[in-house]
Structures are given as structure tokens and as C-alpha cells.
Amino acid sequence: MSSMETAAAFPLRAPPKLVTRLTIVHLVEMILGGILMVFVVLPSIFRFSLVSASFWQIYGRFYVTGLFGTFFYVALTLPLSVVLGFLMGWARVSRIRVFSWPASLYVNVFRGLPPLILVIFASLFGTNLVPQPIMDRFLSGFRRGDIAVGLAAIAIAMHSSAYQAEIFRAGFQSVPKGQQEAAQALGLRPWQGMMHVILPQTFRLSLPPLGNEFAVLIKDTSILAAISGTELVAKSRDLLGILPASGFPIVWIFAVWTVVALTYFVLTYSVTRGLRLLERKFHTPGLESISL
Questions:
Q1: Could you give the CA distance from residue 145 to residue 228 in angstroms, rounded to a whole number?
Q2: pTM of this prediction?
Q3: Cα(247)–Cα(254) distance, rounded to whole angstroms?
């Protein structure tokens, strides 16, 4: 059989499109639903508008400050949780007990504790665990309360990393073991086989559950409001504390929390859809994503 006949017998599959018609339909539905909610449902049922100029004149600065605070905590916790989760997941599949046992203990402990408890412990006692030379050299310019909130954010990252460790562990174990042996048979060293064969497939397999965990992590930053972290929930609560005594409409309380809810929805939806597009871009036929 000639090469052309072989190509005809086994046609190459076109790579999947990043943006399909269904993706566009979902996006249009989300936009139309949001417009309907903001401009029709809320004004007619609850007698308030989320686009009121007087409302945003008061709430605007609280919202912007809180939103930037949320972005800051996400930028702090997300990379840290991914790095820790990957290392712990790698250690979990290691045959060396001195690596796998501490990693298993880490995962089980942080998965078994509520994030609120971790935040409280980190904010109350975390500063006492930081060595004094580090406090004097690197953190002397920060207030103790700000350091406590930062440590609480790190605690949230560690909590999320325990779940991400299980995602990466499942990703590692989903790659057939024979591929590492095949890579070595082709002349690749063990670390080269890991870098060029195992890891790319692990990340492809892990993308969908990682998107869900990233969405959870974004929402978990709102827990920092319990210790006066300067994020969206805390700043919105600051406004509500002075709202009744300021003579503003009481319905603004519902408006504030509606804006907060919509903001978190947009953030989490954007992250999950973005990783869904990445999964579609790097999808390999025959290599299906893991489910936990």
C-alpha cells in the first residue's frame, strides 16, 4: 500500500476548535441573562437598580477597593497552591517513603480541616511561628495585622493545595507506566522522560478538575473577611455597617450583596471557561481528562 493510500485510509483528525458554536451560544445566553436580571427582574421585583448613579457614588469606592483586594489575594494564593499541590502530588506517587509519607500526612490534614479554622489559627498564631530574624529583615515595614492576614491567605493556599495534590496524583497515575519505559528505550534519561513525556500529559489530564478547584479557591478568599481582610466581602460589609445610620435606602443592603454575588460568579465562570478552552486546545485523542 502506497503512502497516499495509507493517508486516505487513515485520515488525520482536525484539531478541535477553541471556540465552537455551542460556546458562543452559552456566552450569549449568559450575557442576555445578566441583562435581563439587572434591568428587568431586580427593578420590577425588588424595586432597586444595580446601575443607579447614587448607589455607585457611595458603593463605588468600597467595591473597587475590595475587588482589587480580592485580586491581590487570588494572585497570592493561586500560584502558591499550584506549586505546593504539584510538589505534594509528585511526592504522593513517589516510591520513596520519606517523600510519600509526609506528603500523604499533609494532604490528609489540610483536607480534613475547614478553611475557616485554618484562617483563624493562622491569623492568631501564625506570626508567632515566623522566625524573628525574618520578621525583622523582611516584614518590619508591615503592620502585625497585615502580616496575620497574609499568613491566613497562605493557609487558604495550603488548604487548596491539598486538593490539587490529589488532582495531580490522579494525573500522574493516569499516564500509562509503559510510557516512561518507552522513553528510556528511546534514549531519554529518566528526568527527560518525565519532562517531555509524563508531565505534559499530566497537565492535560488535570486541567478540568483544576478549573473547579481554582473556582473554589477564588470563593474561599472571601473567608478572609472574618479577620478583616481587605477583600470584596469585607469592604462591602464596611459599607453596610454605616448604611442604616446614613439615611440611604435599606434595599441597598440587598443590592450590595447582589453585586458581590454577581462578581464572584463572573470571576469563577471566567476561570472555569478559560481552563475549558485550554483543555480543548491541548486535547489529545485517546487521552481523557481525570475525574475526582
A1: 9
A2: 0.81
A3: 15
Q: How many residues does the chain have?
A: 292
Our measurement of the distance from residue 148's CA atom to the centroid of its chain's CA atoms, rounded to an integer in Å, reads: 22
Whether 85 contacts 165, CB under 8 Å: yes
Give pLDDT tens digits for 191-213: 677 777 778 888 888 888 898 99
Query: What cell numbers appear for 275 in the block?
Result: 481552563
| Residue 251 is assigned to a structural domain of this protein | yes
Cell (9 digits) for 194 = 518525565
3-state secondary structure of 201: helix
The CA distance from 76 to 275, in Å, is 19
Contact 107, 161 (CB under 8 A): no
CA distance 26 to 124: 44
Which residues span the domain enclosing 148? 49-281
Q: Which three cell numbers stand for residue 46?
A: 425588588
Query: Domain count of the chain?
Result: 1
In this predicted structure, what is the pLDDT of residue 219?
94
- Burial grade of 87 (CB within 10 A; 0-12, 13-18, 19 or more): middle
Report how far residue 48's alpha carbon sits from residue 40's, in angstroms, rounded to the nearest whole number: 10
Collapsing DSSP states into helix, strand and coil, what is residue 284? strand
